[in-house]
Write a structure and sequence with these properties.
Blueprint: E1 10-14, H1 18-27, E2 34-37, E3 43-47, E4 50-51, E5 57-64, E6 67-74, H2 81-87, E7 92-98, H3 103-112, E8 116-123, E9 126-132, E10 140-144, H4 148-162, E11 170-171
């Protein structure tokens, strides 16, 4: 567990083809089921302090044990840390995420200790922030506030994975 950010709960994987990535994780790694949404509702998205409304992110979530995997494909040209990662020639793990309940206090502490905000936004599940201070590719830190809505969805993803028999590997509805 990170003393600064809390427990590592998620690995964020930026991909160019989310459909191929989901198939790979199912067929090669045996991880699933995946819960997919073509357009994550994101509001008030900022990158390097500038607002960029209308960012189009396709997201898929699955768990392997207690760790959630998040596949992210950006489907627009809005500036973002995902675009930066891909343009640098990378694909794969872009960040790890904690889900603190004391989100505001952890964010204030990170900012007081030299981290800066790379991008942040709001969703119906609550706020999230990505912090600059990446030591090497794949180590961006995201924090997503553990709101009741986020907890409900993430618990459902984890529970589906725990008893998954390989059927219905890609579910095109968010868990309810």
């Amino acid at each position: 567990m990170s003393r600064k950010f809390g427990e590592m709960r998620q690995v964020g994987i930026v991909v160019r083809d989310i459909e191929a990535a989901m198939r790979h994780w199912v067929e090669v790694c045996g991880v699933g089921p995946w819960f997919y949404t073509d357009r994550l509702p994101v509001t008030a998205f900022t990158y390097r302090g500038a607002r960029h409304d209308g960012i189009h992110l396709s997201i898929a979530l699955a768990n392997s044990g207690q760790v959630q995997l998040e596949l992210i494909q950006q489907r627009c040209d809005s500036p973002s840390m995902y675009q930066d990662f891909l343009r640098a020639g990378h694909e794969g793990m872009q960040h790890w995420s904690s889900w603190p309940e004391d989100y505001d206090a952890r964010l204030a502490q990170a900012l007081a200790n030299g981290y800066t905000i790379g991008q942040q936004g709001e969703s119906p599940r609550g706020p999230f922030v990505y912090l600059w201070n990446e030591g090497h590719p794949g180590t961006v830190i995201e924090m997503a506030q553990l709101t009741p809505e986020r907890k409900r969805i993430f618990d459902a993803v984890r529970e589906a994975a725990a008893g998954w028999d390989g059927s219905d590997p890609i579910r095109r509805t968010w868990p309810g």
